[in-house]
């Protein structure tokens, strides 16, 4: 059975201090940042770093974490990103070259955002099982600083840059249960990047969507896996903001001790959000059941 064995991460050292930001001539309210947004700083990639470069650094961290694992073991890779190196070719092909992976290695991109990690792990697990592969890597990297308007508080205070590399293998520590999916295409313009225009986010619409649809999806996932909430040791929610994570927990009547918020120092990292939290718990033998939920664009 294919499962998650280990996770490598890369968070750029560059930070934007949320407390010192000024928008429309007004200083950001410190209480608003601390209690609502929750991100005291957001990570920013170096100007000369591309998406593939960040993924290489996450892979290097994965090799350190995974011990006896190396490039020659990788049979397939998937990169989840909206912001690759180029519009064409697919960035996973560039990554295959930069990592010196075998040319028999399958490599493909998936264009998903906040829900991307859940989809990507499912996709690569199925792909590996179908083809009899033993080792594959899911990369996530969506450096939104490429498409952010630095004057737009709705996006600039929230989004950070990071990359992760998740090793899926026959030695996995966590196997996947049943996954539930949902799509609300009619709300497509709540989070949108139009050609030659900065990213736009309607935070109020997104928040209302998450509380309504996210909570229902989580309940459905519990039912599909024949679990009660008290049987789940950890709920890993997309780190959209401190307020969103805590309000969703309250809606579901979950103890906050089971719902970690760990993104204070680096921000909402889109598809990297879930694995950045998950990597803290992979070796905690007390944790048997984890429910992950990605939501947003």
User: Approximately what portion of the residues adopt beta-strand conformation?
Assistant: 15-25%
Residue-averaged pLDDT, rounded?
94
Radius of gyration of CA atoms, rounded to a whole number = 18 Å
Characterize the overall form: globular
CATH class: Alpha Beta
Number of DSSP E strands: 14
Fraction of residues in helix: 25-40%
The strands making up the biggest β-sheet line up spatially as 7-6-8-9-1-10
What features would you describe in this structure?
By secondary structure, the protein is α/β, with parallel strands linked by helices. Helices cover 30% and strands 19% of the residues. Strands 7-6-8-9-1-10 form a six-stranded mixed β-sheet, sandwiched between helices. Strands 2-5 form a two-stranded antiparallel sheet. The chain is globular. The model has no long low-confidence stretch (mean pLDDT 94).
């Amino acid at each position: 059975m294919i499962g998650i064995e280990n996770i490598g991460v890369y968070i750029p050292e560059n930070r934007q201090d949320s407390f010192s930001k000024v928008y429309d001539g007004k200083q950001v309210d410190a209480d608003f940042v601390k209690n609502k947004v929750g991100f005291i700083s957001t990570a920013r990639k170096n100007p000369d770093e591309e998406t593939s470069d960040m993924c290489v650094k996450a892979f290097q961290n994965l090799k350190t974490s995974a011990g006896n694992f190396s490039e020659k073991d990788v049979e397939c890779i998937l990169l989840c990103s909206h912001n690759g190196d180029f519009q064409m070719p697919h960035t996973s092909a560039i990554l295959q070259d930069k990592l010196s992976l075998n040319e028999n290695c399958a490599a493909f991109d998936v264009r998903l955002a906040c829900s991307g990690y859940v989809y990507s792990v499912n996709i690569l697990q199925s792909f590996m099982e179908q083809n009899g592969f033993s080792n594959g890597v899911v990369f996530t990297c969506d450096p939104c600083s490429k498409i952010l308007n630095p004057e737009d508080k709705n996006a600039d205070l929230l989004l950070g840059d990071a990359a992760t590399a998740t090793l899926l293998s026959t030695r996995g520590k966590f196997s996947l249960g049943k996954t539930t999916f949902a799509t609300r295409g009619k709300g497509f313009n709540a989070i949108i990047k139009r050609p030659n225009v900065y990213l736009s986010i309607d935070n109020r619409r997104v928040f209302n969507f998450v509380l309504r649809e996210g909570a229902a999806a989580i309940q459905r996932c519990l039912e599909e896996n024949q679990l009660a909430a008290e049987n789940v040791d950890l709920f890993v929610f997309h780190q959209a903001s401190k307020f969103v994570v805590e309000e969703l927990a309250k809606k579901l009547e979950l103890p906050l001790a089971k719902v970690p918020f760990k993104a204070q120092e680096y921000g909402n990292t889109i598809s990297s959000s879930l694995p950045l939290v998950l990597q803290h718990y992979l070796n905690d033998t007390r944790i048997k059941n984890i429910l992950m939920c990605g939501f947003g664009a």
